[in-house]
């Protein structure tokens, strides 16, 4: 479907008209329909591990270089003559028994690599010699290089070789028809035995997986159906077992309005509390686009949203939001948020340091006139007083306590 192709073309900004590479493996695709109409610029098409029974609707892909349809249900090579740029074709582990259908690739003059490993036709005597003779443009067959001596040897045996292969194909068709009938009867009997069981019963699936089966397209289709059904049941049951009220909700504030501190993206950070400002250094990923980040500085917290995940840090003092700045390093990618405090701490230099600084500017050596203190100071006798002051001193025991 178009929706599936656009989903797989994220690397091309969901544009399928100019798509050059498309991977649709393991999607249970049962037929090739519209790829040739929608993606004419394709150069690489990967369709392995699906349920495709026939090669069709690919004649418009004039620029296709590599086609991979391994592990499918293909029984015949056909409808590839129009792929004039095709250089590599992978048909590994299919059900190709008609080896003479390889002759349809003669017009693909750019074809250099062909893989037929795992197909019934590879068991025919003289299989490799026949393919080498029919397709002289090949450089590698099943991953093995084709040499000049191999071609000369195969050309001598080709007249009698083709007659033998045609006979083997006829026998294979008869066996294939008999196999198709046997498998259909086996599938019908198996479904009849478990018809009374409900669809979600595990015994129905276990009975299918435990029975003996033949290696054929019909069996592969049945296996895909049971796998898809069990996956849907597992997914559906998982969704039912998680009610909406049990979903985790993100809490950024307490009930009283106090902001929480949380780190959903789990990135490292450094926080510095300077006398006049707060500095937050977030170790953001170097190659993360800046458009995926959002910074919000409020009076008592700062919040950085990175790809939908919230990093929030509560501040113990109010800040000046209008003077806060945010910068990002072009070398490391780190994000630096500087937030000036609303009420910065005042740093008062000692009087002695001021005198030293002033005298150093004037070139005068400062000498301390104050003696060094060697014990506690009696603040009551600092000022010179007379005996009258001592006599009129208030008794502290009579003073009531402060309320």
The global form is: elongated
Determine the N-to-C terminus distance.
Answer: 83 Å
Biggest β-sheet strands, sense, barrel: 7 strands, mixed
Strand order of the largest sheet: 1-2-3-4-5-6-7
Can you give me a brief rundown of this structure?
With 403 residues, the protein is α/β, with parallel strands linked by helices. It has eight helices and 15 strands.
Keywords:
single chain; 403 residues; alpha/beta; Leucine-rich repeat, LRR (right-handed beta-alpha superhelix); Immunoglobulin-like; seven-stranded mixed sheet; four-stranded antiparallel sheet; 8 helices; 15 strands; 28% helix; 15% strand; elongated
Report on the structure:
- This protein is of the alpha/beta class.
- Among the domains are: about 1-170, Ribonuclease Inhibitor (Leucine-rich repeat, LRR (right-handed beta-alpha superhelix), Alpha-Beta Horseshoe), CATH 3.80.10.10; about 260-340, Immunoglobulin-like (Sandwich).
- Helices cover about 30% and strands about 15% of the residues.
- It has 8 helices and 15 strands.
- The protein has helices at about 1-5, 35-40, 125-135, 150-195, 200-210, 215-240, 350-360, 385-390, and strands at about 20-25, 45, 65-70, 90, 115, 140, 145, 260-265, 270-275, 275-280, 295-300, 300-305, 310-315, 325-330, 335-340.
- The strands form 3 sheets. It has a 7-stranded mixed sheet with strand order 1-2-3-4-5-6-7, covered by helices on one side. A 4-stranded antiparallel sheet has the order 8-13-12-11, with no helix packed on it.
- Strand 11 (about 295-300) and strand 12 (about 300-305) form a beta hairpin.
- Helix 3 (about 125-135) packs across helix 4.
